[in-house]
Design goal:
alpha+beta, Heat Shock Protein 90
Length: 469
Amino acid sequence: MRTISRKLTLAFLLVAVIAAALVAVVVRLTSPDRLNALLRDQARAQLETVLVDYYTANGSFDGVATVLASSGFLPPSPHQVQPGQPAGGVQPFDASQASPRESRLVFALADERGVVILTMLPNYALGSQLPPDRLALGKVIEVDGRVIGTIFTPPDAFVFTSEEQAYLDRTSQALWLAALGAIAAALVTGVLLARSFARPVRLLTSAARKMAGGELEQEVPVASKDEIGELTQAFNSMSHAVSQANQLRKQMTADIAHDLRTPLTVIAGYIESMQEGVLEPTPERLEIIHSEIERLQRMVEDLRTLSRADAGELALVRQPIAPRTLLERVASVYCHAAGQQEITLKIDAADGLHEIHVDEARMVQVLGNLVDNALRYTPAGGTVILGASQTEAGVTLLVQDAGQGIQPEDLPHVFERFYRADKSRADAEGASGLGLAIARAIVVAHGGELRAESAPGEGTLMVITLPIS
C-alpha cells in the first residue's frame, strides 16, 4: 500500500532529481561557451591595450608585429604588409595548424583607412581595403577619440589548453557531486517533511475511525497553522459538535419520555381505577383526564413544529404589520391573565416604526410564549413590559419581566429543548420545556434573532431583532 508519506517523499525526490539534472545539463552545456567568450574577451582586451600603447608611443603601427610576437600575441613569421607591397599578395596565416595558445589569438588588424595590415584570418587578405559593412564587424580602437584601427576576431570557439580543459572537467565533477548532494538532501528533507505532513493525517484517520466506532468525543492535537492545522481544528470542532448533539439527543429522549410518562401515568391511573370500580367517573375526574390529554397533544404539536423548523419546512404566511399593532394584539390576549395575577402589562412602543414582514400568527405565538414566561416568573405587583424600537439592524421587540432573573450558568442554555433553569417549578406548572426553543426557531425562520439578557435579581429581558420589510 502506497502511503501519503511515501508519495510525498518520492515527489520531493523526483523534483530534486529533475532540478539537479536540468541545472547540471545547462551548466555543462554553457560552461565551455562562457569560458571561451571570457578568454576571447580577455585576449582581445589585452591585444587592444598593447596596440594602443604602441601607437601612442610610435604614432603608427610600423613594426608592431615584432612587439606582438614578443608579447605572445602572434605566432612566428606573422604576415604584415610592408611599404610598396601589393594588396593581397601574401598567403594568410593558417589558423587550423596553430596550437591552442596560437589559435586563441587569431585576429586581423586594419588601420584607420580600413586596410588590413596584420592578418591571421583567411578572409582578411593582407593589404586589402575592407568595405564599411565589414569594418562594422570589428572592434574599433581609439586614441584620444580618434580611430586608429580595427581588430577582427573570429566567432569560433577556442581550442582549450590542457589546464583549461582540466578546469572544465573539475567544474563538471563538482557540479555532479553538488547535484548528488542536493538529491540526498532532498531525500532526507522529503522524508522528514512527508512524515510531518502525514502524521496529523494519520491522527485524523485514527480519530475518525474511533468516531465511527462510537467514541464521538475526539481531540486531535493541532501542530501547525497551515491548511492541515485548519483541517484538524475543523475536525475537533465537528467532533465536539457531534458529541454534544448526541448528548442533547440522549437528554431530549429522556426528557420526552419523562414528560410523556407523567400525563400517561395520570390518565392510566384514573382509567384503571374507574374500570375496577375504585373511583366513580365524575365530571371533575374526566376533566383531569382531558387536561392531561390536551397536555400530550400540545407536546406532540410542539415537537412537530420544531421538526418542521429543523427541516426548513416551517410554513410562513408573511404580511406587513406595524410593531405596535403586533404588541397590542398579544397584550389583549394576556391582559386578563395579568390582571388575575395583579401584574401590570405595559406597552412601550413608539408610533411610526417601520413595518415588519412576518407571519402574524407565528409571531403572536412567539411573543405569547415570552409573555407567558414573564407572567409566570413576575411576582404580584410587578410589571411586564412589551416594547419595540428601531435600530440599524432592524426592528427590535422586547419582553421585560420583573422576576428573579436567570443564573449566569443557565443563561446560555435557556433556548435548548427541554432545558429548565427551575426544573421543579416547571414540572409543577406543566411546562414542556420546548416553548423558548420553538420561539427561537420561528424567529430564525423569519431571518431574525432571539436572545436573552438577565442577571440574578434584576429580571429577564427577551430581545427579538427582525429585518425591516
